[in-house]
Write a structure and sequence with these properties.
The complex is a heterodimer of chains A (157) and B (280). Chain A contains 5 helices and 5 strands. Chain A is α+β, with helices and mostly antiparallel strands and 157 residues long. In chain A, β1 and β2 form a beta hairpin. Chain B starts with 6 loop residues before the first strand and ends with a helix. The chains are: A alpha+beta (157), B alpha+beta (280).
């Protein structure tokens, strides 16, 4: 079936089977490398995207439902200074995320910081719980997120 | 298998929805959409012939607050309820909603679908039971749109025989129980094959004056332990070690009367109730 989607500010017309998931559409058909179609059951979190500025697991979302909604993937923020600020925090904490979880974690951190400018303990727990990847220990991740939030606010240069 | 030509409809009003249902035979109403992913073939979704997306119907996204209860349109997401009602709801309710799923899932899963989904009973149902939640239901095959409020017990006991229907609103009473617990076995965001438990109680000088408990077994069966609730009225919380053995015997006798429960499930249920009574 044919429909239009708004991906990272650009409108695309796609022609795909009706039973395709959004993660498959973005990752496989539209080759956005930041969206990984992995578990397909909403457990791993690697396929996280923002739809109308709300984080969702795109593997739990039929592609057709995204019609008329604004989809944001990590590619949309790569050129922004906010992205480099978040990365600085991760680098300072010596956290090197694996390629599977990095896009989702960074996008989620960006989303939370855009919303609140400050990360509360609950939000940090949310970011950690949402993506189940064991590449980094929880305490290092917390430190990285805390530093990323400070860089984001401009507390550090 | 892939069914070619699955058609999607997005009606803007309830009457439009009824018109579509009048025309089509086999339809699936889609609220949040997370239930679709229970039926997959390999990595492919198994979709029915017609899917009706309910997100554009304004009646289903309304919210109404009174002093005694909150009413939510069935399309309001779990995360929305957490965000808007954190200050008003009992902590046990918020805790249960937060434990329901990670927040990207809570952003799409809706309260109506959590109740209406019959294939997999939601972890929230025991809590909704003990809170005496009510639902407004309309039968979509009827000619007129006639909404009816029902208690959750009434709704779930007749759910299999009522044909195509829609929950339009969910009413959650504003109760602040003195003593409560919500518990899920297994992983924090368990998906299935686990036990969830909810209990609320009022206490008078440490003794139980009213109690309501409910279990969800393997996301397939909701059990209300009314007989056990009645036996426990007047008991002191936390229970003493001496009364423990006698209580276990009573629980066993009561649970043995319920059909379809495995021995290990009964054991787990008894331990969960004791855990609650010992005020952990």
């Amino acid at each position: 079936m044919k429909f239009n989607i708004d991906l990272n500010g650009k409108e695309y017309e796609v022609d795909v089977p009706s039973n395709l998931r959004l993660s498959q559409l973005l990752g496989m058909v539209m080759t956005r490398k930041s969206v990984k179609h992995n578990c397909g059951t909403g457990r791993c979190g690697y396929c996280l995207v923002l739809i109308d500025n709300t984080p969702i697991y795109s593997c739990l979302y039929p592609a057709y439902r995204a019609q008329g909604k604004k989809i944001i993937t990590l590619e949309a923020i790569l050129q922004k200074s906010e992205y480099s600020n978040i990365i600085k925090g991760f680098e300072l904490a010596n956290v090197d995320l694996c390629p599977n979880c990095a896009p989702a974690r960074i996008l989620l951190t960006y989303h939370q910081l855009e919303k609140n400018r400050e990360l509360t303990g609950e939000m940090i727990e949310n970011i950690i719980d949402t993506i189940t990847c064991d590449c980094t220990d929880v305490s290092s991740l917390k430190e990285a997120l805390y530093l990323a939030a400070n860089f984001y606010k401009g507390d550090f240069d | 298998m892939i069914k070619k030509g699955t058609r999607f409809y997005t009606p803007d009003t309830l009457s439009e929805l009824k018109e579509i249902i009048y025309k089509e035979q086999e339809v699936k109403l889609l609220a949040g959409g997370t239930s679709l992913f229970r039926k997959i073939n390999g990595d492919t979704l198994v979709l029915p012939g017609v899917i009706i997306l309910l997100e554009n119907i304004p009646e289903l996204t309304k919210e109404n607050r009174t002093e005694r209860y909150f009413e939510f349109g069935s399309m309001i997401t779990i995360q929305n309820i957490i965000d808007n009602c954190k200050r008003n709801f009992a902590p046990v309710l918020i805790d249960a909603l937060e434990k329901n799923a990670p927040f990207p899932v809570r952003n799409i899963s809706t309260i109506g679908a959590a109740i209406a989904n019959n294939d997999i009973k939601s972890d929230l149902l025991p809590l909704f039971y003990v809170f005496n939640v009510k639902v407004e239901v309309i039968n979509l095959r009827d000619k007129k749109i006639k909404a009816r409020w029902e208690s959750l017990t009434q709704y779930l006991s007749t759910q299999d025989n009522r044909g195509l229907h829609l929950i339009t609103r969910v009413r959650i009473p504003l109760i602040n129980p003195a003593y409560y617990q919500y518990f899920k076995t297994g992983f924090k965001y368990n998906l299935f094959n686990e036990i969830s438990f909810a209990a609320i109680a009022d206490l008078e000088k440490g003794n139980i004056s009213s109690l309501s408990m409910a279990f969800n077994i393997n996301n397939k069966k909701i059990i209300r332990t009314k007989d056990i609730d009645a036996e426990l009225i007047g008991k002191h919380i936390p229970i003493g070690l001496k009364s423990r053995e006698a209580l276990i015997q009573t629980f066993n006798d009561n649970l043995n009367r319920i059909e379809g429960l495995e021995d290990y499930q009964k054991f787990q249920m008894i331990q969960i109730i004791l855990h609650f009574l010992e005020a952990f």
